[in-house]
Amino acid sequence: MQFKEKLEDMQAKINSYLNSIIPRDEAYINNLLDSMRYSLFAGGKRMRPILMLTVGEIFDCKAEFILPFAAAVEMIHTYSLIHDDLPAIDNDDYRRGKLTNHKVYGEACAILSGDALLNFAYEHILDFSLKYNDTRFIAASYEISKAAGIYGMIGGQVVDIENENKPCDIKTVEYMHKNKTGALITASVRSSAVISRVNADDLTRLTDFAQKLGLAFQIIDDILDVVGDDAKLGKKHGSDLKSNKSTYVSLVGLKSSREMAARLTNDALNLISFYKEKAEFLYMLTEYLLNREY
Amino acid sequence: MQFKEKLEDMQAKINSYLNSIIPRDEAYINNLLDSMRYSLFAGGKRMRPILMLTVGEIFDCKAEFILPFAAAVEMIHTYSLIHDDLPAIDNDDYRRGKLTNHKVYGEACAILSGDALLNFAYEHILDFSLKYNDTRFIAASYEISKAAGIYGMIGGQVVDIENENKPCDIKTVEYMHKNKTGALITASVRSSAVISRVNADDLTRLTDFAQKLGLAFQIIDDILDVVGDDAKLGKKHGSDLKSNKSTYVSLVGLKSSREMAARLTNDALNLISFYKEKAEFLYMLTEYLLNREY
């Protein structure tokens, strides 16, 4: 199968799974469910779930064991976007070219839909873990929860907000990136690896890979915010500049940022070349994610 | 030990446990941690955690097995209050006589502190469950997650919001109460029972007890919103009337509401009298919760 075909196939599998687990037509809460679905199916690339299925494939792990956790990660990612977009935080009207959740459903519903997606992520993987009663599923759930919380995504988000309109140093920008986006990407790879019962060396190698991928991904985001094409991004570029945020680009310049992203990409690819043809798709996926224009 | 002494002893045990698990002095996220602590230690009665320890005692279950889950429930309860108080939802400036979280830390931080408490609740019980690798802890975690989500607290909250400024029927008010407050109270009792390895009959009996307790508690809340003393409540009464919310009192009147609360209280007490002197404290606790003026 060609790369693009396989990518679309995985996206379809994830969308179909997500569609099957979010309830429909429940008396009293239909508006809430609509709002959750609206953001969950607003055109996300499913990068994290695809990464998870891809890691699982290297170790011949069944997709049915990865999918519940991939869905949870996507729900957590989506809730964080809904809350980030709120007037009190980034105050964004558009995301991926569509109105943000609170612009369609109102602020109260957007806050609660975010809460509901976060909670449903845990509800879903706990339900699954209870059925199978196998420690690796608890270990994977814990990996995800740690990465989503104060020592991960939420911690990074807080620093991002405090960083607005205030110049900060490269260490702070690194902390922010490592936690706000990097932690959940790393947890995606690690949780899949744990579910696939990899050995300690593999877990270290894949963690290293994921950290480099996550950081490169975020540096590229910073670069695209300066040089990106609005139509491809689905949002206005220049938002970091507008909110006076320190970024890699503002601190070390465009040229150094590009070199850094290239070096990290190269390192990430070298790490997974260890798995030879088994990691062919992960190799292509990494190149694809790090050569994007959106 | 006298009732009040034991109650205070349990509160102290829960506060000390909560204090030990919420981190302090972490570079970059101190403001977030302060904000989480602010609401977590804003004078909550710890009703749910106390209920959980009390149920555990009936079956001689070690407190160390219950405490992590009791803390999780209290964190979930606290996050829901922070988000409820936000300007976009109830827009409350005070809770329990203190400024609400967003009035002290700002809206962005209040949203993220709520998210952080919800996530940390799961992070904490997953960490614990992973250490012990015992199905009852996963079952208890799942009970809590279900009750906190779309089929529980969040579902009830959505209906509560939609119910503002719009008359609704008694079925809708029942749905709202059952889910917004009842579900987490029931999950508190059920999760403790599951951790205590009770049999199926006990689980049914305790579920029935918890549902009656939760509903009575909420009807009394509605009554106190009409006849309560602001100083004892720590907030202004009449807030339901102000926001035009339908309640038990507005739909069936004060007299019928009182009769209903009395009947439910009586039924709840009858159910636990099955455990005789083993349930003495739970009996007193139930009377205490349902004869409150605040």
Automatic annotation (TrEMBL), chains A, B:
Cofactors named for this entry: Mg(2+)
One term under GO cellular component: cytoplasm
Protein EC: 2.5.1.10
GO molecular function per UniProt: (2E,6E)-farnesyl diphosphate synthase activity; metal ion binding
Catalysed reactions listed for this entry: isopentenyl diphosphate + (2E)-geranyl diphosphate = (2E,6E)-farnesyl diphosphate + diphosphate
InterPro entries on file: Isoprenoid_synthase_dom_sf, Polyprenyl_synt, Polyprenyl_synt_CS, Prenyl_diphosphate_synthase
GO BP annotations, alphabetical order: terpenoid biosynthetic process
Key words of the record: Isoprene biosynthesis, Magnesium, Metal-binding, Transferase
Family in the record: Belongs to the FPP/GGPP synthase family.
PANTHER family in the cross-refs: FARNESYL DIPHOSPHATE SYNTHASE
Protein name, per record: Farnesyl diphosphate synthase
Species, as recorded: Oxobacter pfennigii
The organism's taxonomic lineage, starting at the top: Bacteria, Bacillati, Bacillota, Clostridia, Eubacteriales
